[in-house]
Design a protein that fits this description.
This protein has 4 helices and 8 strands. The chain is an alpha+beta fold and 207 residues long. 22% of the residues are buried.
Length: 207
């Protein structure tokens, strides 16, 4: 068989061997967190809207991809209440369908609300969760309060501070809180660790 004919037949069978790509886009999505009554003294709670983007480039359709988070501190109204947050978005990506391998790649967006009260565990209200009754649980001890900050600012998922002025301001607030905890640390090791975490947040804020 001539070489050109062999190449032509190979091209005909190539889609069946390697699979096909099916792009999809413009799948609308709406995320929502309800208004929340803080049930605390005025000015005790810092409320943050968290805009989350998640991309999945994994070979598994069931494995979530890495998240990218941007925070913005919200103003609490005169009734000591955080207003509802709404985020319309579009989920988009592509599907590869093959003989031995199916592959899904997508990007999706969501919103959450995180409530930080010094001396208490972090409260998070995710999209479409009810948040009308807040249960504050004390965070006794330095380590418990550090965990609350770690949950508010997951260092590996945070966007750069240059992406948003509000996000940068939130990161600087977090760094100041780590530094505040460091002044109350009983050991040099705890103090060094907390200062290190503060410096990490400041580095992200300055990028």
């Amino acid at each position: 068989m001539p070489n050109k004919l062999i190449a032509f037949v190979g091209l005909l069978y190539l889609p069946f061997l390697s699979g096909c790509v099916c792009p999809y886009c413009a799948i609308p999505k709406l995320d929502y967190t309800p208004s929340v009554k803080l049930e605390s003294e005025p000015d005790e709670v810092h409320a943050f809207r968290v805009d989350i983007s998640r991309s999945n480039g994994s070979m598994s359709v069931f494995r979530e991809g890495a998240a990218s988070e941007s925070l913005e501190e919200l103003r609490v109204n005169d009734a000591n209440e955080v207003p509802a947050q709404i985020k319309p978005s579009v989920r988009y990506g592509l599907v590869v369908i093959g003989i031995a391998l199916n592959y899904l790649s997508y990007t999706t967006h969501s919103v959450a609300l995180r409530l930080y009260r010094p001396g208490y565990e972090l409260v998070e209200v995710r999209s479409w969760e009810r948040g009308d009754q807040i249960e504050w649980r004390a965070a006794p001890g330095l380590r418990a309060q550090e965990i609350a900050l770690d949950s508010l600012f997951p260092i590996g998922s945070l966007e750069r501070g240059s992406e948003s002025r509000a996000h940068r301001k939130a990161l600087i607030f977090g760094a100041c809180e780590y530094e505040r905890l460091a002044t109350n640390a009983d050991s040099k090791a705890d103090q060094t660790r907390l200062i290190g975490e503060a410096n990490e947040l400041r580095e992200v804020a300055d990028r």
